[in-house]
Design goal:
The complex is a heterodimer. Chain A is of the alpha/beta class. Chain A is built from eight helices and nine strands. Chain A has two domains: about 230 residues, Rossmann fold; about 30 residues, no CATH class. Helices cover about 40% and strands about 20% of the residues of chain A. The radius of gyration of chain A is 23 Å and the shape is elongated. The chains are: A alpha/beta, B alpha/beta. At the A-B interface, strand 7, strand 8 and helix 7 of A face strand 2 and helix 2 of B.
Chain lengths: ~280, ~850
């Protein structure tokens, strides 16, 4: 276990780098759009009784007749719970040129977390304490895959957002129970499905024995190309079912293929997250 | 094509079995990890992929199997039927006399081929060289031993000794019967028949192998304006004869005529410089005629008595003689007794002689000397003048003077018996005074020149082995204008030529000075030679070469000792083969194994989708390495290299020169290099050679970019090139243009004259000059060597070092040239390591200053 963690941790800096790079490409962190405690300037207003002397902006006041108070935008922190699947099926790619699904999933999770942290929000990996501050993103990276399943913990409060990243290839029953458990706690959020292109297009042909780690049974196909059409149907059904399941619970579902650009996925995710936050 | 182990081919019968087996076992399915496996469960393909192998993979594998089987059977292309089957002992009789030197490489190669065949089947070998000395033991030996033996063989510069070999063959016998092969020189010999019988007695054979035969050259009586040689060869085809100078320079050439005689026309001045005459394209002892003092340098002694200093130079009695003789002879002057001790060719004197001096001179003439006397007043007055060809009438004769009514006389044309025959007499010659011969001529006296009224002008008399010659007029213009005419030097030259032919230099026996090897190259004597006497014939004890006094040695040539060559026609009963018709055997094994390897690689790539690039690269490298055998060979040993110019004369010179240098290097230092390699600049890698000797000729073709690239790479990686103009710095615009072009193409660095304290002058020997065939050529070396750790990469000179190393140049400079060669090689091999030696005095001094 420790070994695995170390291996994962070794891979972290480059992944973090990738996440930062991708996150940097998404413009603008979001604010509360109203005055409150925060760093960025919001507005000047005439001082009212009860304002402390410390709050008065003396330079601005000198320009006008009255005392002016400088107000900053309120940047209240919201909590985003993140979970990244680190199951067996995730560590796979169909071609050497592609990243594995778990790599891409981790990069996207971290990038989204980074954006959230930058926006002044708190990020809470499942099974871990909430984290705030952009520089703490490493801690997110270390603990985001701790839990095998996104089981709601004590930190999950109503109104919190949830981001689940996985290939969601497990049977839908499983996901239904997960989503219901989360929704029961008042949380709502997004599913990000990361798939390898081969899992969607099934480009195989010839005599092939298909196996899967951790599963003893295998499927031997005499001519793999024969089943491609029916497989594609099955996977499309699965994805559609997943989306409708999410929607029924008030969640959204995004699909991402590892041969597509990570930025596109992140931008879509970001848009969803900020809509949610408003 | 034949096989060493044909029974292995039976395994080919198992191929159908292999085919069936391969067909029966289908290739395993590909295995694939697929996470959405759950979604595949229950899906079935309509039909299975055919589970047999594609036919072409089958064919590929069968080809691999069959080529491996064929390789194991040891296939040999162009196998010689008898060689492969016989396992009994093999006797190779091999003529290694002078006549095979030109054909030597081919013959050696032929023997190596036969011995390699014998090695395969383990035949015992008898080696019988037929030129003396006959070796102690002829065999039997293993083929490996025989191979090492023949690699050290060289052709001998003398004839074969069939009788001696026949005697030695008497001791050879083998119960199994010996198959014999005779690699004959192709020359007729009365003992040939007996030799064939002696070989036939041993068992099977002999088979006579005939190859090319060399030609011999012997000096012929010369006419003054040319050097003549007679060619002794089997064919009347014309051959080119080249006269080479002391330094190996070509002085003249001629084609032989129908009488197998060649005359190389040479001006007088050049004639004396000829050191050797060779048949072009032949490198053998018999095709080389060495010229010695007898043919060449002639000393003319002019007798001058002690009180001559007060006389005026132009009136001096022998001034005109000295001027006339100067172009073709060396002149010594002095009192008579001193001159005789110097053994001159001709002694010339003017005027009267005392009885004592005449007696001395007479004795000298008897032993082969020549005395030329010029008359003067004292002689005309002296009635009892000693030592004259014929008696004189006292008083002399004057014509055209104030007191005389006769006209000055002109000269008559020379008679055919006279040595001056053929010279044209200018009409303006007038003789006003002479001493008159007695009309009753001495019967022994010969008249070589007459005046128009047929009174003798030059008389001569043979005395013992020498000649006494008298000019009946003075050597000054006082008596006649003969000494001012162009005829005078010609006449004197004829006389001097005649003299040298009779002259004896010292008495035998003569110790060897430099001896020739079979290829016609000169080497210091090895110690086995004996002193030369008049009766000596060329042989192991008397190899051709120079004998006698090292300053004026006498040449001993092989050519004159040979009988006229006749072609050997083997008797009809023996089998005769012509060498070179048989192609050498070729072992196909490496080729087949390589093929199997390549096919196997292809099979792996196709079927197993071999992605381990490293494995593939390793296999490819193995194959590539096997193919690039040449590179491989070059890399195994360190060796010197020379650039092949394509001119066979220069290339063979480079090869011989570097070969000699390699030998000397091995003898004197711990460097032991392999035989030098000729390098054709074809863009191949030169990195294996520490030193590249590059003879540059004006005709050298422009290098292509790939060629230039290869050389630039070589230089950049620390190679060393010695560019040799080989012309002793003669200003030659064509050559300089070539050099400029070369320098531009090769990006040669700036050069500077070699300083005397350069490492090159210090690396082994301490040298002052770097002479080759020429001594004075300037040597240039790379100026700025900082890029290459202080070691120059280019040296440019013009001294023709290879020629000197090969022994084609000035004998005295060979040692110095070798020293330069050794220094150069050590410089090339050790780089700046020896530079410390240059600073040694400074280092020692500094050490001495330490407390």
């Amino acid at each position: 276990m420790k070994q695995q963690a170390l291996v994962l941790a070794d891979a972290l800096p480059p992944l973090l780098m990738a996440a930062r790079q991708i996150a940097g490409s998404v413009m603008g962190a979001h604010g509360r759009r109203q005055a409150g405690p925060g760093d960025s300037f919001w507005q000047y207003r005439v001082a009212r009784p009860g304002d402390s002397l410390r709050q008065i902006d003396w330079r601005q006041s000198a320009r006008s007749q009255s005392l002016q108070v400088r107000e900053t935008e309120w940047a209240a922190a919201q909590t985003v719970h993140v979970w990244c699947d680190s199951g067996d099926g995730m560590d796979w790619r169909s071609q050497a040129t592609l990243p594995t699904k778990s790599q891409r999933a981790l990069v996207l999770t971290l990038a989204a977390s980074l954006l959230a942290l930058r926006g002044g929000e708190r990020v809470c990996p499942f099974g871990s304490a909430p984290i705030s501050g952009e520089h703490q993103v490493e801690r997110v990276a270390l603990s985001v895959g701790l839990r095998a399943d996104p089981v709601p913990g004590p930190t999950l409060a109503p109104g919190h957002s949830v981001l689940l990243v996985s290939d969601f290839l497990a049977p839908l029953d499983h996901w239904e129970s997960v989503l219901k458990a989360l929704s029961r706690r008042g949380a709502a959020g997004h599913l990000l499905q990361v798939l390898d292109p081969a899992e969607e297009t099934f480009p195989f042909s010839g005599r092939i024995v298909f196996r899967h780690q951790g599963q003893s049974d295998s499927v031997e196909l005499g001519r793999a190309q024969d089943v491609a059409a029916s497989y594609r149907e099955r996977i499309a059904d699965h994805c559609r079912d997943l989306t409708s399941l999410a929607q029924s619970q008030g969640w959204t579902c995004l699909k991402h293929r590892t041969d597509h650009s990570a930025q596109t996925a992140l931008l879509a995710l970001y848009t969803r997250l900020s809509e949610r936050a408003r | 094509m034949s096989f060493a182990f044909p029974w292995i081919l039976l395994a080919l019968a198992a191929l159908p079995g292999l085919w069936w087996l391969l067909k029966a076992v289908p290739p395993p399915p590909k295995s694939m990890i697929f996470p959405p496996l759950r979604l595949l469960l229950g899906l079935k393909s309509r039909r299975d992929e055919p589970d047999h192998m594609p036919w072409w993979i089958l064919a590929l594998r069968l080809m691999i199997a069959s080529s491996l089987i064929a390789a194991a059977a040891g296939p040999i292309l162009f196998a010689h039927p008898n060689a492969a089957q016989t396992t009994g002992p093999l006797l190779i009789a091999f003529d290694d006399d002078w006549s095979v030197a030109t054909d030597w490489q081919t013959r050696l190669q032929w023997m190596e081929d036969r011995l390699n065949e014998a090695k395969r089947v383990g035949r015992p070998i008898y080696l019988v060289p037929t030129a003396p000395p006959v070796p102690q033991a002829l065999g039997p030996m293993s083929a490996e031993q025989a191979l090492t033996q023949i690699r050290h063989w060289k052709p001998k510069p003398w004839e074969t000794d069939r009788q001696g070999v026949i005697a030695a063959l008497k001791d050879v016998s083998d119960p199994a019967g010996i198959q014999s092969v005779w690699l004959a020189n192709g020359l007729d010999d009365e003992a040939n028949e007996a030799f064939i019988h002696a070989l036939a007695r041993l068992g099977n054979g002999p088979t006579v192998i005939l190859g090319k035969t060399g030609a011999a050259l012997s000096p012929a009586a010369s006419v003054s304006e040319s050097i003549s040689v007679e060619i002794n060869s089997l064919t009347p085809d014309p051959v080119a004869v080249v006269a080479l100078g002391q330094d190996g320079r070509e002085l003249g050439r001629a084609l032989s005529d129908a009488t197998r005689r060649a005359s190389v026309p040479l001006p007088l001045a050049l004639r004396n410089q000829v050191a050797r005459i060779v048949i072009e394209g032949e490198h053998s002892a018999a095709a080389t005629v060495l010229m010695d003092e007898r043919n060449r340098r002639r000393t003319v002694a002019l007798v001058q008595d002690g009180m001559d200093e007060s006389r005026q130079p132009l009136l001096e009695s022998l001034t005109y003689v000295a001027k006339a003789v100067q172009p073709f002879a060396e002149i010594v002057t002095g009192p008579q007794t001193e001159l005789l001790a110097q053994k001159p060719s001709v002694l010339m004197l003017s005027g009267s002689l005392s009885q004592d001096r005449a007696f001395d001179l007479g004795g000298w003439i008897e032993t082969g000397g020549m005395v030329v006397r010029f008359a003067d007043e004292t002689m005309a007055q002296n009635d009892h003048e000693p030592l004259l060809p014929t008696r004189l009438r006292g008083g002399g004769r004057e014509m055209g003077g104030v007191l005389s009514w006769t006209e000055p006389q002109t000269m008559a044309a020379f008679s055919a018996e006279s040595p001056f025959a053929g010279l044209t007499v200018p009409e303006e010659i007038q003789v006003r005074s002479q001493v008159l011969a007695d009309p009753n001529l001495d019967p022994d006296a010969k008249v070589w020149a007459r005046l128009a009224d047929s009174t003798p002008l030059v008389t001569a008399k043979a005395m013992g082995q020498g000649w006494l010659v008298l000019f009946h007029c003075a050597a000054t213009p006082k008596w006649s204008n003969l000494s001012l005419s162009g005829l005078f030097p010609d006449m004197l030259h004829r006389l001097v030529m005649m003299a040298s032919a009779h002259q004896v230099q010292g008495e035998g026996p003569f110790a060897p000075v430099r001896v020739m090897d079979g290829f016609g190259l000169l080497f210091p004597p090895t110690g086995t030679e004996r002193a030369l006497t008049e009766q000596s014939r060329p042989g192991p004890a008397h190899p051709p070469g120079f004998y006698g006094d090292s300053k004026a040695p006498r040449a001993f040539n092989l050519g004159p000792a040979l009988k006229p060559l006749r072609r050997f026609v083997p008797p009809a009963s023996v089998r005769v083969e012509q060498m070179g018709m048989q192609q050498a055997e070729r072992d196909l094994r490496p080729f087949l194994v390589g093929l199997a390897l390549v096919l196997g690689l292809a099979d792996l790539v196709i079927t197993a989708r071999l992605t381990h690039v490293a494995v593939a690269v390793a296999m490819l490298l193995t194959i590539g390495g096997a193919l690039a055998e040449e590179v491989w060979k070059a890399g195994l040993d360190t060796r010197l290299a020379y650039v092949e110019t394509g001119v066979s004369r220069i290339d063979s010179k480079s090869r011989l020169g570097l070969g000699a240098l390699t030998e000397v290097l091995a003898a004197r230092s711990t460097t032991s290099l392999a035989a030098p390699q000729g390098v054709r600049l074809d863009g191949g890698d030169l990195a294996f050679y520490p030193l590249l000797y590059w003879p540059v000729t004006a005709e050298a073709e422009t290098l292509s970019e790939t060629q230039a690239q290869a050389v630039r790479h070589y230089l950049k990686r620390g190679g060393l090139i010695l560019l040799d103009r080989q012309d002793g710095d003669v200003a030659d615009p064509a050559l300089e243009a070539t050099l400029r072009r070369l320098s531009r193409q090769l990006d040669l660095p700036p050069l500077t004259p070699l300083s005397s304290d350069h490492v090159l002058n210090r690396s082994f020997y301490l040298l002052r000059g770097l002479p080759g065939r020429f001594a004075d050529g300037k040597v240039w070396i790379q100026a700025d060597t900082a890029d290459n750790d202080g070691v120059a990469t280019v040296i440019l000179g013009s001294n023709d070092w290879a020629g000197e190393w090969a022994g084609m140049g000035v004998p005295g400079q060979q040692e110095a040239a070798f020293r330069f060669g050794i220094n150069l090689c050590l410089y090339a091999l050790t780089g700046n390591y020896k530079a410390d030696q240059v600073h040694l005095p400074a280092i020692l001094e500094r050490l001495g200053h330490q407390p």
